[in-house]
Design goal:
The chain contains two helices and five strands; from the N terminus they run H-E-E-E-H-E-E. It is globular. Helices cover 33% and strands 34% of the residues.
Length: 95
């Protein structure tokens, strides 16, 4: 978990410095809670457990809500730029 925490701290600092970041996430929808689970260096992607099913865009909405809370930005500042219907997504976050 320390490696995951270090990566998340680095991402937060980059967002503060540059005002914008793009990250890759691999989502696991339909879980009990939403949280960062892991970081897969081969994919350069964070793994997220999502507490919503992938039905009618609910998992994507939960992903945006969680990222908004985690990075302390408005939901409108988070855009899924690729992978709307996939488990691997590219997300752009701006301040």
């Amino acid at each position: 978990m320390q490696f995951l925490d270090l990566n998340l701290d680095l991402i937060k600092r980059r967002l503060e410095e540059k005002g914008e970041i793009v990250i890759k996430v691999k989502v696991k929808p339909g879980k009990k809670q939403t949280f960062f689970m892991d970081y897969i260096s081969e994919l350069e992607a964070f793994v997220l457990s999502l507490g919503a099913l992938p039905v009618d865009g609910k998992a994507n909405k939960e992903l945006i809500r969680f990222m908004s809370d985690f990075f302390v930005v408005k939901k409108t500042n988070i855009v899924i730029t690729s992978g709307q219907g996939a488990k691997i997504k590219i997300i752009k976050i701006t301040l």
